[in-house]
Amino acid sequence: MEAAKQKRVNVEKAQNFMRQYRDPESRELKKLSAHQFMDVWSHYDKDGNGFIEGTELDGFLREFVASANPTEVNSEALTDEMLDELKSCFLEAYDDNQDGKIDIRELAQLLPMEENFLLLFRFDNPLESSVEFMKIWREYDSDNSGYIEADELKNFLRDLLKEAKHNNDVSEERLIEYTLFQLQVFDANKDGRLQLSEMAKLLPVKENFLCRQVFKGAKNLTKEDIESVFSLYDRDNNGSIENEELRGFLKDLLELAKKDYDASDLKDFEETILQGVGYDKDGKISRKELTMILLTLAKIPPNEQ
Q1: What is the rounded distance in angstroms from the CA atom of residue 250 to the CA atom of residue 252?
Q2: EF-hand domain spans which residues (predicted)?
Q3: CA-CA distances (angstroms) from residue 209 to 5, 109, 129, 253?
Q4: In what helix (H) or strand (E) does residue 241 lie, and over which residues does it extend?
Q5: What pLDDT, in 10s, does the model give residues 22-75?
Q6: Which of 35, 70, 82, 179 has its CA 20 to 30 A from that of 264?
């Protein structure tokens, strides 16, 4: 009996991957575990580039719609015109950054998941600045290795659930599952740990202020613009940018030049940038030094940033 049931599930999975996750009676989607959600993601992100896009998105939408039918319906029954209309509506509803493709966080808005697992997608309420990010980084990179290893990531997730008052509902086994899931998604180079740029995708900042168009041309840069930047990073209002404030500023600068970077890249970048503005090695950046950096940045052609 059990073998027959498993055979039926395998047939449905082969015909329509999403059908196995719907209730056979109500046709509603079941709540997915971390493992099941990752199965769905891996199945449709066939090229493993971190997005469901193009023909991958077409295939997902066709199967998603067809799976809701109580009888087996070929996903190709959805006409191209219907697919285009569906895709337009789908992207309008779930493609938050309007890039025409679906990332893992956007998919998490669509599929129902176990409550505690869903929380791990809700903490992506963007941080106000990279200063906050660097404070979190320092707290959880407890061995100062320049990476967030699996045990440190698990501590981060445990504290996240604790803050949401859901930690008592999560077993150690489930917490390990969540940790492995996050590593599978965000550990792009598959070295079993998160470097700075990988953690930055897991814990995003609302906006890299330095990406704004005003910083692309020195003629457009005003004292008010410089003061806005200084205020953004001088979080304690002590008149200088230092410690995590400085690391956050440099992280945002580095992101203009590199998509993938680690702590050593940030350190090298710090030395290069600060030497270029006559840094006096007091561990701080003044308004004058910040002005020199921003004016230098604004003079660099966009294709060289």
Answers
A1: 5
A2: 32-67, 81-117, 128-163, 221-256
A3: 55, 26, 8, 10
A4: strand 241-242
A5: 998 888 999 998 889 989 998 999 988 888 999 999 999 999 998 988 766 555
A6: 179
